[in-house]
Write a structure and sequence with these properties.
This protein is α+β, with helices and mostly antiparallel strands. The chain has 6 helices and 10 strands, in the order H-E-E-H-E-E-E-E-E-E-H-H-E-E-H-H. The N and C termini lie far apart (62 Å).
C-alpha cells in the first residue's frame, strides 16, 4: 500500500482524536440550563402559528389528550437552553397523578426544523420518575439510573402512547404509588422546582453544578460524558438499547390493549 494512504489514515485518525478531545471543552464552556427563563404565555394571543389546526400540530396533539380526559393547566415558553426556544402545553390526567407535555423545540440557528413531541411523566413517592415520549431526539446519556424511559419516536398516535405509558408505570410500580400533582400550586413555580430537583440529582453525581439559583452548567466530567454520549458509537448503542426495550413494551400493549 502506498505511503500516502498510511499518511492520510494517520491524519484522519488524528482529526478524530482531536474532535473527541476538543468537543467536550466547547460544550463545557457553552452549555447552560436556566430554569428562570420559564414563563407562562397567553393561550389566546401568543404563538398562534404554533397552535395551527391539524393533527400533527401542538393543538392537534392537545385535542387528542383532551379526548383522553387530560386538562391543560398552563402554556409555557422559555429559552431554557441557550441555543433553542421551547414552547409547551402542560396537561394533567383525570386522576391527577400523571402529566403530559405537548412540546415544540425550535433551534435558534435554524439548522433543523422544529421538533414536536408528547412526553408523559409520572413520579413515584420514592422519587423515581417514569417518562414515555415520542421525540425524535435520542435519550440523554445522563438520565438518572433510578428513572425509567420508554422512547418511541415512531408512535405518533397519542392514545396509543398513553396506553404504553400506563403499562410502563404499572411495570415500574414495585408496590409504590405514583405522586399526585399539586394542582393548587402555581404551575410555573411547580415546573421550575421540578427542573431544579432533576438537576440537583445530576449535580450530586458530578454531572452539573449550580452556578447561581436556578442556573446549571456542566462540570468537566459532565461535558466529557454528555459529548462522548452523542458521538458514535456510543449514541447508536444507547439508541438501540432504549429502542429495543421500548418496542418490547409497545408490542405487549398492542397484543393486550389497556
Amino acid at each position: 500500500m502506498p505511503d500516502w494512504v498510511y499518511t492520510s489514515l494517520g491524519i484522519v485518525g488524528l482529526l478524530i482524536v482531536l474532535a473527541y478531545l476538543g468537543l467536550p471543552f466547547v460544550v463545557w464552556q457553552s452549555f447552560k440550563f436556566d430554569v428562570n427563563q420559564l414563563t407562562e404565555i397567553d393561550p389566546d394571543e401568543d404563538f398562534d402559528d404554533l397552535w395551527a389546526d391539524d393533527s400533527s400540530s401542538l393543538s392537534g396533539m392537545r385535542r387528542s389528550l383532551s379526548a383522553l380526559g387530560f386538562s391543560e393547566v398552563a402554556r409555557c415558553t422559555g429559552a431554557l437552553v441557550s441555543n433553542v426556544d421551547t414552547v409547551f402545553s402542560m396537561m394533567v390526567s383525570p386522576c391527577g397523578n400523571h402529566l403530559a407535555f405537548v412540546s415544540i423545540v425550535v433551534p435558534k440557528a435554524n439548522t433543523m426544523g422544529a421538533m414536536r413531541y408528547v412526553d408523559f411523566s409520572s413520579e413515584f413517592l420514592d422519587g423515581r420518575e417514569i417518562n414515555t415520549q415520542n421525540t425524535s431526539v435520542s435519550p440523554s446519556a445522563q438520565r438518572d439510573p433510578d428513572d425509567s424511559l420508554i422512547w418511541l419516536p415512531e408512535v405518533q398516535d397519542v392514545p396509543l402512547l398513553w396506553q404504553v405509558h400506563l403499562a410502563h408505570v404499572a411495570r415500574q410500580e414495585r408496590g409504590t404509588k405514583s405522586r399526585a400533582i399539586p394542582l393548587d400550586r402555581d404551575p410555573i413555580e411547580f415546573m421550575k422546582d421540578e427542573m431544579s430537583r432533576e438537576f440537583t440529582k445530576k449535580s450530586a453525581r458530578g454531572i452539573y453544578k449550580e452556578v447561581e439559583p436556578g442556573v446549571y452548567c456542566l462540570t468537566l466530567k459532565g461535558a466529557f460524558s454528555e459529548s462522548w454520549g452523542e458521538l458514535p458509537p456510543f449514541k447508536q448503542l444507547r439508541r438501540r438499547r432504549f429502542h429495543r426495550r421500548s418496542l418490547e413494551l409497545l408490542r405487549e400493549v398492542q397484543r393486550r390493549p389497556a
